[in-house]
Amino acid sequence: MAKRKTTIKKLAKKATQNGASNGNGKAVSTRLSVLKTYKLYIGGAFPRTESGRYYKLKNNSNTLIANMCLGSRKDFRNAVVAARKAQGKWASRTAYNRSQILYRIAEMLEERRDQFITTLTDLDYTAKQAAREVDATVDRAVHYAGWADKYQQIFSAVNPVASAHFNFSVLEPMGVVAIFAPEKNGLLGLASAIFPAICGGNSVVILASEKEATAAINFAEVLHTSDLPGGVVNILTGNRAELRDHFATHKDVNAFVYYGNDKADKKAIQTQAADNLKRPVFIEETDLFSDYHESPYRILATTETKTTWHPIASDMTGGGGAY
After folding, report:
1. Topology (CATH level 3) of domain 54-312
2. Region of residue 196 (phi > 0: left; psi between -120 and 50: alpha; otherwise: beta)
3. What are the residue boundaries of the structural domains of the chain, listed by start?
4. Of the chain's two ends, which shows fewer C-beta atoms within 10 Å, N or C?
5. Reported pTM
């Protein structure tokens, strides 16, 4: 009897370790997988939406992928506060340091390549399409890392003037840039919108693709481990129609970059942005793999030109002639 009890205990222990039996002598795992909670990314942290709301993200076969936070006006305002707080210090970083951090983002994306491919295939990408998008995103990070300490040399100038002044123009970041990311290509579109803005020294509040939001929050985890200061990039998930007016009218947003082709949206944004002289930037949702999205002019779109007049001795100008 004692021997039988010992045997039962051993079998019970084995079942606990390997899973219970299904009655046919085969082990069945009793472990429940830990499902990922997708939150927002604000100020270098991952808070839930203050409203407690969410929407169900499903693929084309109506399979539930995740419950995504439905960002609210308050979430957006919190993100703008975080972006404004971080922007000054980020802009004061050397161009070389911003380049290093962008390159670090590329390294972290490359390291997590397989994870992002899985994320995109869950969203109905083929394995080939997913791999192409992840690779293009890595390459885009490297591209803008290369421009970070070079675009000033392309767009800045020493200007000839007909007075005793040394006159020169340089680019400065606009400040806080709000962005509606492309709805297509949830990873590449998000990165293509973020990289040129932060390359130029801006901080960003971006609304991710509603239908491919899991890729955006996974991307936030890459940013979080890439030496990028908290608050420089803030990622929201939610609905464009609900948040459009808040993005366009917020007084502490300096530019609004809109990816899309909706004429009604563009007209409303232009009208509302004029209230605080916010710069609206409209970019058509074209092929995101094209060279159009790898250009220093994407950096220029969210910068301002500052021109300085520095007085010099009159005898250095050739008797007051043109410099």
Report:
1. Aldehyde Dehydrogenase; Chain A, domain 1 (3.40.605)
2. alpha
3. 54-312
4. N
5. 0.85
